[in-house]
Amino acid sequence: MKRYKLKGLSCAKCAANIEEELKKHKGFAAVNFATSELVVDADEEEVLEVVKRVEPEVEVIKIDGMGEGEEEEETDTKKEVVQIAVAGILFGLGLIFEQALHTTPVAEYALFLSAYLIAGHRILVKAVKNLRRGVVFDENFLISIATIGAVAIHEMPEAVAVMLFFRVGEFMQDLAVGKSRRSIKSLLAIKAEYANLKVKDEIRRVKPEDVRVGDLIVVKPGERIPLDGVVVEGSSVVDTSALTGESKPREVAEGEEVLSGMVNLSGLLTVRVTKPFSASTVSRILELVEEASSRKAKAEKFMTKFARYYTPAVIALASAIAVIPPFVLGEHFTTWIYRALVLLVISCPCALVVSIPLSYFAAIGKAARKGILIKGANFIDVLKSTRVVAMDKTGTLTGGSFKVAGVVAVNGFKEEDVLKFAAIAETHSNHPIARSVVEAYGGDLELKVEEYREIAGRGVVASANGFTVVAGNDLLMHEMEIEHEFCKVEGTVVHVAVNGKYAGYIIVADQLKEDAKQAVEELKAAGCKVVMLTGDSKEVAETIAAQLGIEYFAELLPEDKVRVIEEIQTRERPVAFVGDGINDAPVIARADVGVSMGAMGSDAAIEVADVVIMDDRPSKVPKAIKLARKTQKVVWENIGLALAVKGFFVALGTLGMATMWEAVFADVGVTLIAVANSMRLLR
């Protein structure tokens, strides 16, 4: 996919037109009105051709690296203000001296037409250009027809008022949308503008994109770390809040990993770069947030279809009102044409088309700032409706930092033998339990492992110097037909057998995360049922579930977790699953919305999930659900307000109880209110 900046894109309907036209040619295209960016699988020449044809005034700029092309567009606000002010003064003079001007029609027309052309020349030019391209259902054409119609029926003040109010409204809308865009982007300002590249004894300031893997960079106190890497010299305290949303500082020293987006708070660090900028944590976060616009929510899809039919329907109604009553009832044409012109003014669905994508993108930006990556507006829809949250135990509800709490030896083996043989078997495993066993042994493993097999959800089998060691749970012991003790203890049990003879067992303990209970309580308060899925024993699962007050399913293999989720889905939906994103990949993919925990710096975890929590705090799951519900509330407030105002003025216009300038004032006003309401999500 390629990304392009669409400079001068100030109209949400224009963004929809560009997206729709590109989809006809390429099959996939997504225009993010909130950031004025386009994501499409097409060459620059094709994009230029389509954009030039659909929206000639929009400039296409290719974005080669993250952050390029994101400069704020410079709008000539001074020129806008001058034109509006001059038109307003002329209009005011026309109203003040309207009675006197009636005696000199030429002077009246000259004054009002001057104000009309100064305020509306740009809109008229756009309307003519669009007409040449066969576009008749855009706001510029409708306002032009409405005001020209007012001039034709000798309603000069009305024509100028509508054009002036519309121009003021467009100006204010552009300012409001621009401010909204800046507010959203400020939430995502996590990219360092430069890197201090160390070349021998010299420090050069370069773009992060120009630094290669293996290069050394220097990060001074107060600077943002530009690329992912490992500290090779120095120690410091870093602020990870830009990535995780948590302001708790973290100490780093030589040999430890640091990620782009972190802020160095104290010491001088020398970092060896381990990833190019394009694959860095910051780059992936920004890319995911910006690509989220390609996954539309139901409300966005509905409004796109609604806008497609609403405007033609109102125009058809206006045409009928202008023609039928004069012929059928013998009424004056002027009266009914005026009513029809009021409907034309109110026929543009700007408030809906502008505010809805802004609402969703503001929510996605706010979530990202809190360390929650939501990979599409459609997942906000699913999150807000979530009824069941299934959570993995290890690493999600518990810390995953296992410690050996006890060793029991039988059949003539010593405790140190049990621990040693278990460590030999587990030495090649990356599972947290395996790592805790190896760490607890702590000695040199002089026996070389010749064969090794890890069995998912059960344990490991390894051969070394004539010894065959089996280390795992009850299921593995049963499968290997090894007689063993039944252990009802608090903690995870690792049974150990050597050459088919049971040697004993190791008790490994894990602790609940400090915010696990808070997460469960908040989810329950939000109306969500919480269940725990774990591969651990029933005894361990029962202990943890009792502490949290939730249901549990224990001794599950990865495929069993998928089966349980599918069973729950037959009764209640949507179902969210929260896991570590790597070991739980199948069940995360099967859930209605998959959430991966502790994904900071993990590409695999980011890829597999729909929602990514960058740190290890389960309490962020209810936060994501609450934000999704607030977003939906704001979206439907905007839809309700816009439809109510539109419907009200369509009725008033049809009955002859509204003027054109009142209609345009209401149209612009509801758009500004909707945009302001959307921005509440950033607070």
UniProtKB/TrEMBL annotation:
The HMA domain, residue ranges: 1-62
Protein topology in the membrane: Multi-pass membrane protein
Residue intervals passing through the bilayer: 81-100, 106-125, 309-330, 336-363, 639-658
Gene Ontology CC: membrane
Origin superkingdom: Archaea
InterPro entries (alphabetical): ATPase_P-typ_cyto_dom_N (IPR023299), ATPase_P-typ_P_site (IPR018303), ATPase_P-typ_TM_dom_sf (IPR023298), ATPase_P-typ_transduc_dom_A_sf (IPR008250), ATPase_P-type_domA (IPR059000), Cation_Transport_ATPase_IB (IPR051014), HAD-like_sf (IPR036412), HAD_sf (IPR023214)
Keywords: ATP-binding, Membrane, Metal-binding, Nucleotide-binding, Translocase, Transmembrane, Transmembrane helix
Chief subcellular location: membrane
GO molecular function: ATP binding; ATP hydrolysis activity; ATPase-coupled monoatomic cation transmembrane transporter activity; cadmium ion transmembrane transporter activity; metal ion binding
Gene3D superfamilies attached to this UniProt entry: 3.30.70.100, Calcium-transporting ATPase, cytoplasmic domain N, Calcium-transporting ATPase, cytoplasmic transduction domain A, HAD superfamily/HAD-like
SUPFAM superfamilies from the UniProt entry: Calcium ATPase, transduction domain A, Calcium ATPase, transmembrane domain M, HAD-like, HMA, heavy metal-associated domain
The protein's name: Heavy metal-(Cd/Co/Hg/Pb/Zn)-translocating P-type ATPase
Organism of this sequence: Archaeoglobus fulgidus
Localization annotation: Membrane
Similarity comment text for this entry: Belongs to the cation transport ATPase (P-type) (TC 3.A.3) family. Type IB subfamily.
CDD domains: HMA
